[in-house]
Amino acid sequence: MSGISIETASETDLDGMLRLLQLLFAIEKDFHFDEAGGRRGLLMLLEQTDALLLVAKSAERVIGMCSAQLNISTAAGGYSLLVEDLVVSREQRGRGVAKRLLESVGRWAAARDVLRFQLVADRENGAALAFYKKRGWQLSNLLVLYNHPETQTTGEV
Questions:
Q1: The CATH number of the domain where 106 resides is what?
Q2: Residue 14 sits in which domain range?
Q3: Is residue 83, in this structure, part of any structural domain at all?
Q4: In angstroms, rounded to a whole number, what is the distance separating the alpha carbons of residues 152 and 148?
Q5: Is 39 inside any structural domain?
């Protein structure tokens, strides 16, 4: 793994991260790649003090990325961390890049007293699920649901 660095992302990494998001969203059925939206989201993450955006680089080229955001958990009674967008370029997979990205996220989280980590993964992405399971991640009985503001209805509860 020599020659691969894990760094806090910057605006100069945006194009590389967008290429990786395009790769990630190609395998996810719930999302489609939107370059403008992806760019806006990445820029927002770069501005947040309660979020982390990391890149893995080889020869100054972005080969992996991971984002994470703090949430307050009433179940844990403190901070939980939502890990998102962990992706490594196809040619760099199997070299420990994703593992190093998660380890860096873990150090960042420990400094913030995070009590629990959580993530969502596509249920059909067997390779990713095996990767997480090998590292102690557990399946939850909870389901992830999503909606968009324009589809919200106003009904009495």
A1: 3.40.630.30
A2: 4-151
A3: yes
A4: 7
A5: yes
Q: What is the pLDDT of residues 93-109, one digit of tens each?
A: 999 999 999 999 999 99
Instruction: Tell if the pTM clears 0.70, that is, is over it.
Output: yes
Residue 157, domain member (yes or no): no
What are the tokens at 25?
């969203």
3-state secondary structure the chain: CCCEEEEECCHHHHHHHHHHHHHHHCCCCCCCCCHHHHHHHHHHHHHCCCEEEEEEEECCEEEEEEEEEEEEECCCCEEEEEEEEEEECHHHCCCCHHHHHHHHHHHHHHCCCCCEEEECCCCCCHHHHHHHHHCCCCCCCCCCCCCCHHHCCCCCC
What is the β-pairing status of strands 116-119 and 51-58? unpaired
Count of domains forming the chain: 1
